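Repro:
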Amino acid sequence: MGVSLKIDYMAPVSDLMAEKLVPSLLINLYSVLISIPCGFALGIYSATHKNKWQDILAGLGIMLLISVPSLVLGFLLQFFMGYKGGLPIVVSSLYEAGGFFTAEMLRSQILPVLTLGLPSIAFLARNVRAEMAEELGSPQIVFAKSLGVSRRKLVYGYAL
């Protein structure tokens, strides 16, 4: 890949990229681990409360998160959660934090993880809600409901 002329003069670019690979993978992994369960839970909740105030409020939040660019979302999270809320805005270095899995490193990764995860949560919730709402109105679900199947089993056993 060549050598770096700006970051570390004449250092191989592949070495510089390898240094940053583990933190980047961790932030992406944490984002996925948070966004999948939260997106499914929000989508299921919204579908089971269809056309009620909870669904309208969730839909409004989903549309806002989908429409806001990630750069703007990151700035807003930095301002409100970092500057006003006290979370660290600058990510701790590996040396300062004492390792990748320390409390200080996890605390410093909250803002990047939320910036990556919130749009994914909104995307998943929107899709899960649409599919669940369609499935909950299907004839087999209506028939199972008429047979006296519990709401919990209808939602989690059949529709999901």
